[in-house]
Specification:
Length: about 425
């Protein structure tokens, strides 16, 4: 058995148990996301082997030509860069199935349930939060995700925000301080005091565990000035900027995100022409979260309009217990193609390169020499099946970290490859 362990896809041709080189061989269709090196916008290569050494892609060779310590036979199926999920709230306790059920019966989503999760999360021990987070990470890895961003936002106190971020930092480098998620009950009617706390003591406690800062800029959460103050404080503390904006209606969030140089503005369900123009003229990515619009019965964002206007886009899961309890980016791809006007290729790029761009990373989201060797092996011959067969777990195997420092970490989907 090779060091990556587990059942093999096709034939195991490993030649040792101790090396750090791995070939995914006999790939029918490889998405490199490197158009200079392959066909079309996805840079497709056919009949190849992907060679990964010490966690990085070292070569793409003809099938059968790679000599490595471990080989995985992809059996002629499709291989993609591991998915990059640039928006999640994975560290939480409690469940809001009841809220979802009421919503399906007509009750609108207003974000108020964040306080329910905050209460449950504050009451959970570190070990319980670790256990829950690891379960969700495994689920995401089995579904093809190899990099994930995790936000706080269910602590809403100095101690609990710092605690959530410390736990998140144990499993990802992409951690985001979201103290400005909602006013906690103890600050009802004292929004400015809470914003002062977020920008002061809470940020001080959170910054050591955070790469990014975020705010929920929306009616009922934080207004333009409050969101700007939070982003400015984060920037002064050396954090990168991201923003929740334009989820529940039109508003100033997208333009604030652009003005402040956010890496990404997320949701973008409602966008005016001026919002699109501002985004198109900027480096800020619009990250769509279609599973949220699905689960809150909101309209889907018009991704076609954004792409045609020249906006850089990404798609993320927004895994959280209230508005989007899924880790499946395959589900998001299917929604984006079916309901947001994206081509399948655009949707695939949005969960790989787009997610990487939203995190300002150029080492992930692609498979070319020098990039991280994070790969998703499908049990289908092409990536089209991700939209064509919605709801079917099509990821046979995921190779590369999610919540692990082990560059050979491997998860298996419920199915081995089959026609
Ligand atoms: O991105 N919109 C704000 N935050 C989350 C929802 C969190 C919740 O409802 O618990 C989101 O959708």
């Amino acid at each position: 058995m090779s060091k990556i362990g587990g059942p093999y896809i096709g034939q195991d041709r490993s030649r040792s148990t101790s090396g750090t080189s791995l070939a995914i061989d006999n790939i029918g269709l490889l998405v490199t996301n490197h158009p200079e090196d392959g066909e079309g916008p996805l840079g497709i290569r056919r009949g190849v082997a992907l060679v990964i050494e010490d966690g990085f892609v070292s070569a793409i060779t003809s099938a059968g030509a790679a000599i490595t310590d471990t080989q995985v036979d992809a059996g002629g199926r499709c291989v993609l860069p591991g998915f990059v999920d640039s928006h999640s709230h994975l560290v939480f306790a409690g469940d809001r199935a009841e809220e979802f059920t009421k919503r399906m019966a007509g009750q609108p989503y207003d974000g108020g349930g964040i306080r329910v999760t905050t209460e449950a999360t504050r009451a959970a021990s570190d070990d319980e939060l670790r256990r829950l987070t690891n379960q969700r990470l495994l689920e995401a890895h089995q579904a093809g995700t190899t990099t994930i961003e995790i936000k706080s936002g269910y602590g809403l106190s100095v101690t609990d925000e710092a605690r959530i971020l410390r736990l998140a930092a144990e499993v990802t480098a992409e951690t985001t301080f979201l103290g400005a998620h909602l006013l906690p009950v103890e600050f009802a009617d004292r929004a400015d005091d809470y914003v002062d706390l977020v920008c002061g003591e809470m940020l001080e406690a959170a910054a050591a565990h955070s790469r990014w800062i975020d705010a929920f800029c929306e009616v009922g959460a934080f207004d333009l000035d409050q969101s700007r103050a939070v982003l400015q404080a984060g920037s002064d503390a050396g954090l990168g900027l991201r923003l929740h904006a334009n989820q529940l209606g039109f508003g100033p969030g997208v333009q604030l995100g652009v003005e402040m140089g956010c890496a990404s503005v997320d949701h973008c369900t409602y966008m005016s022409d001026t919002d699109l123009e501002a985004l198109a003229a900027s480096e800020t990515v619009a990250t769509f979260l279609p599973a949220t619009d699905f689960s809150t019965r909101q309209p889907y964002p018009d991704a076609r309009r954004a792409i045609d206007a020249g906006v850089a886009v990404a798609i993320a899961s927004n895994c959280n217990p209230g508005s989007s309890y899924t880790t499946s980016l395959s589900f998001c791809i299917a929604l984006a193609v079916r309901d947001m006007g994206m081509t399948i290729e655009e949707a695939i790029q949005s969960v790989t390169l787009g997610g990487a761009r939203a995190l300002q990373r150029d080492d992930i989201g692609r498979l070319q020499p020098g990039s991280k060797g994070h790969a998703t092996i499908l049990c289908s011959p092409s990536y089209h099946h991700l939209a064509y067969r919605p709801g079917v777990p099509l990821v046979a195997r995921t190779i590369g970290p999610l919540g692990s420092k082990d560059s050979t970490r491997t998860s298996h989907g419920p199915h081995d490859i089959s026609p």
